[in-house]
Amino acid sequence: xxxxxxxxxxxxxxxxxxxxxxxxxxxxxxxxxxxxxxxxxxxxxxxxxxxxxxxxxxxxxxxxxxxxxxxxxxxxxxxxxxxxxxxxxxxxxxxxxxxxxxxxxxxxxxxxxxxx
Length: 116
Hints:
Elements: E1 13-16, E2 19-25, E3 30-36, E4 41-45, E5 50-57, E6 59-64, E7 69-74, E8 78-81, E9 87-91, E10 95-102, E11 113-114
Parallel strand pairs: 2-11
Antiparallel strand pairs: 1-2, 2-3, 3-10, 4-9, 5-8, 5-10, 6-7, 6-9
């Protein structure tokens, strides 16, 4: 059965004074909405889950790989990170980003709304 839920009904996970996320998860797929103020930084990391995303609003500077390569993601940008691909980012403007992970990231599951 389909599940429909407003973002405002998903409790935010506060990451810093400048960033929060809201997450919903199924068995094999996870969707996360990041809300970041200009200046928010996301530390470098990698994870075994495949990640795709879409920038809805704002400009975000991403640094990908080792050695780092800089990319500027603006509203309307789709992106893909392969499993275990190192990346970090910084919001240059207030931003809204949707990330999709497969399989779901286990460390996000406790905060996520579970899909039926």
